[in-house]
Write a structure and sequence with these properties.
By secondary structure, the chain is mostly beta strands. 9% of the residues lie in helices and 36% in strands. The protein contains five helices and 27 strands. Strands 14, 15, 17, 19, 21, 23 and 25 form a seven-stranded antiparallel sheet that branches. It is globular, with a radius of gyration of 20 Å.
Length: 380
């Protein structure tokens, strides 16, 4: 069993301990080298392997291995090397990832889609042997990681080594309670509105911190985007090349700063509040379903330490991109309506590098909700 020396305490492992985990074989890619650029301040980008399986349905292995459960479900085997393959919308695919784990007993894992993956409306979740839960990796797990991938709005091209999701490792109880979160915000502000910290007593809390929508039209009258039906192929290995006009139509608000969501359509919107993740915390945006069950927001969600942080002190947080879909009936949402929630965990130690500080972060101080694959739009 791999051994990893960690300081006493509880929290999310920062980048320096992720590098140590790789060196000690806790995270291993066999004959492949794990690129240093894939190590983020509090997470690791996971890479697609050499093959993908088109399967007839999703599944969980429960007490069995993923490989055993997969045998009767394979429809086709696809080679991800060289030019890669096209994944069709609405079809599930299972892809063995290059990284495998040999976790010590006290270390658990959590996976999440990368922000760019969620913004392209690509649904992903990790499956492990002997598990009855997606994306959660039990303490002491030893084995392969598999990624289920379902493109929902656009057909996509994927290749070997593409990173669609991230892994976060933690030890002990790391979550902040609402009282702890409110106290932390009072000392080191986390949430901002109109350039100023939200007063601690005005935070909307409930096992996390709620964010609202920004439905005020920008200078071209737009509040976000809706995915176009029958859009062309989106190559996820190319950055800044896709024409947004071919994939998205602008969303403009009704009088009163509100919009009505069309059922099943996919929307990209922005939060009203700006978020700042201090170096001692990591956050995750979790899916939020109101009691009515009519709305689903955010499919991707790790926020690493340093998001919205400016070393010079000029930046008071960054707004968050929200992926929104109504379920069964048209659903009206209004400006500043709370539709998503951030949960917070302590870091085991402060990371050596923060988000946005020379590590190629794509969404620091973002004002545009489109993902990195698209050219910046010039018109409404």
């Amino acid at each position: 069993m791999a051994v990893l020396q960690l300081p006493t305490g509880e929290g999310v492992l920062p980048d320096q301990f992720l590098r140590a985990a790789i060196a000690e074989g806790v995270i291993d890619a066999g004959r492949f080298t794990i690129p240093a650029t894939n190590i983020q301040p509090a997470s690791l980008d996971l890479r697609l392997g050499e093959v993908a399986y088109r399967i007839r349905c999703s599944f969980l292995p429960h007490r069995d291995t993923v490989e055993h459960g997969l045998k009767d479900l394979i429809v086709d085997e696809l080679d991800l090397r060289r030019e890669g393959v096209v994944l069709e919308t609405g079809r599930p695919y299972l892809i063995p990832l290059k990284e495998a784990l040999s976790l010590p007993p006290g270390i658990r894992g959590k996976a999440n889609p990368k922000s760019s993956t969620g913004r392209a409306d690509v649904f992903t979740r990790v499956i492990t042997d002997g598990s009855d839960r997606f994306d959660e990796i039990a303490p002491g797990y030893s084995g392969q990681l598999y990624l289920e991938v379902v493109p929902l709005s656009f057909p996509i091209r994927v290749r070997e080594d593409l990173t669609l999701n991230q892994l976060r490792l933690a030890v002990g109880r790391a979550e902040l309670s609402d009282a702890e979160l409110q106290e932390y915000h009072g000392i080191e502000p986390i949430l901002f509105a109109d350039g100023a910290p939200v007063p601690a007593e005005q935070l909307v809390l409930g096992n996390g911190m709620f964010l609202g929508l920004d439905l005020r039209a920008n200078n071209v009258g737009r509040v976000g985007y809706r995915a176009r039906p029958n859009a062309p192929l989106l190559d996820l290995s190319r950055v800044g090349e896709a024409d947004p006009e071919q994939f998205w139509e602008p969303v403009k608000p009704e009088p009163g700063n509100r919009i009505v969501l069309t059922p099943k359509d996919f929307y990209l919107l922005m939060s009203y509040e700006a978020v700042r993740i201090p170096s001692g915390l990591a956050a995750e945006m979790t899916a939020y379903d109101p009691t009515s069950g009519e709305l689903r927001t955010h499919y991707a969600g790790f926020f690493d330490p340093g998001f919205g942080v400016d070393p010079a002190g000029a930046l008071t947080g960054s707004t968050a991109a929200l992926e929104v879909r109504a379920h069964d009936v048209p659903f009206m949402i209004e400006h500043r309506q709370g539709v998503c929630k951030l949960t917070f965990e302590r870091m085991l130690a402060e990371p050596e590098r923060l988000y946005g500080q020379g590590i190629g972060s794509n969404y620091q101080n973002q004002v545009e909700t489109l993902g990195k694959h698209f050219r910046l739009p010039t018109t409404g």
